[in-house]
């Protein structure tokens, strides 16, 4: 599903590569934690999957497509198959829960009938039934992140990228978030989650890929977070 | 493509930047109106030029009794012989196409038709009017040469090149047109910058939305269209206002001076000018939005 082959990424005006000859394979339906300290290249990895950045060398395949050969014109279509969740939720403050989720479908031109059908289903899947008409500011951090996950998942993506989704959320609420991610993973969606949260990684017992200074230092199935940093 | 989504985004964008939008509309309206005025003057001038270029001729006035011109002083009226010689000379010139003789009676009649001063009309007699040869040239450009050639001939009081009279009118209109076009260009430049600024503000205001649209895979056109539409609508409103201004200019200025213009400017020309300026206004707005988008909205 995601295939990195010897990928190196150096940002302009920087000597040290953000990713240094990284090769990883993530299969369909896998749940993978991407761990490592700040600046180890986790976010760069996610941005490369989205083709927000281009690698300096190496090849990347996502959902069967060689990103180097994917024209800019087709990048939006790639992104429709990838859902994204961030630490800072990125909800639209002037839209309620339903509208925030529906926005993701509206802007890719889905018919209204379809939107009216699937949005309530997804809101229920993330555990926000009955809160569809709340505004983001009326929700807790955990609830806001559920809205963001609903928005990321509403178009049934093949891949869900989560960049520190529990970074702004207390540990108790984080468990709920992880349950939603697990539920999404069980529908067959590949989940790739970058995180600092050792407790969560340890409790989930999923595959762990550890990055340090842009290099993969560990790739372990059913792994734990590892040494404290 | 969901039209009401685009339109609600456009409406929000325009309302948020209301002052900038108004600035764009006013600049486009004034700029395009000036451009239109320039084009209208231009077509008025070319119409007049076309009208006069067939008619332009040299008037070779002959001496009458008591003529104040130096050439006739102390000589009295032109003699029959001089007239005959002169006609032969003129006809002999290679530049001349045709010659017409205007008698004193004809000159008096023509003058009566154009003169409004009743006192002058009552004291002027037919005998005061000069006889003249109306000389039509094959090439109006040669008028000066021919005029200086004929000036010294006996019996000639004066030679008037009608083109010289028209030239001063055309020169004035050319200046007006150039000024209108010059200001129009400045206004178009200002409008372009204003639109660029509006789009930049708009892109900044909507950076959350556009960021999410990018992430969920909205196509570039879907992301950019609201911004371009904002420019287009502002340009369109400005264009309509400039059309109204041009109609006013036609009614209050061109209709007024029409009495002096033998070839008046028709409404069809005005309609053409309005359509043209509106199209240019809209194109400039859309172009400016598009160019600034490239800079401020990464897709």
Summarize this structure as a short list of keywords or feature phrases.
heterodimer; A: 229 residues; alpha/beta; six-stranded mixed beta sheet; 7 helices; 10 strands; 32% helix; globular; B: 299 residues; alpha+beta; Alpha-Beta Plaits; 2 domains; 10 helices; 4 strands; cell division (chain B); Cell division protein FtsX (chain B)
Instruction: Report the principal-axis shape of chain A.
Output: globular
Average pLDDT value of chain B? 82
Strand order of the largest sheet of chain B: 2-3-1-4
Mean pLDDT of chain A: 92
Helix proportion of chain B: over 70%
Strand order of the largest sheet of chain A: 6-7-8-3-9-10
Structural class of chain B: alpha+beta
Biggest beta sheet attributes of chain A? 6 strands, mixed
Number of helices of chain B: 10
Low-confidence stretches of chain A: none
Q: What is the gyration radius of chain A calculated from CA atoms?
A: 17 Å
- The helix/strand series of chain A, from N terminus to C terminus, equals EEEHEEHEHHHEHEHEE
| Global structural class of chain A | alpha/beta
Strand content of chain A: 15-25%
Helix content of chain A: 25-40%
- Quaternary structure of the protein: heterodimer
InterPro entries (chain B): ABC3_permease_C, FtsX, FtsX_actino, FtsX_ECD
Domain FtsX extracellular (chain B): 56-159
Transmembrane segments (chain B): 21-41, 179-199, 232-253, 273-293
Protein name (chain B): Cell division protein FtsX
Please specify the SSE layout and strand pairing:
The complex is a heterodimer of chains A (229) and B (299).
Chain A: E1 2-9, E2 19-26, E3 31-35, H1 42-49, E4 57-62, E5 65-66, H2 75-79, E6 82-86, H3 97-106, H4 112-125, H5 141-153, E7 159-163, H6 171-186, E8 190-195, H7 198-204, E9 207-212, E10 215-220
Parallel strand pairs in A: 3-8, 3-9, 6-7, 7-8
Antiparallel strand pairs in A: 1-2, 1-4, 4-5, 9-10
Chain B: H1 3-16, H2 18-55, E1 58-62, H3 80-92, E2 96-102, H4 104-114, H5 118-123, E3 132-137, H6 143-151, E4 156-161, H7 162-205, H8 207-215, H9 220-257, H10 267-296
Antiparallel strand pairs in B: 1-3, 1-4, 2-3
Protein name (chain A): Cell division ATP-binding protein FtsE
Membrane topology (chain A): Peripheral membrane protein
Main location (chain A): membrane
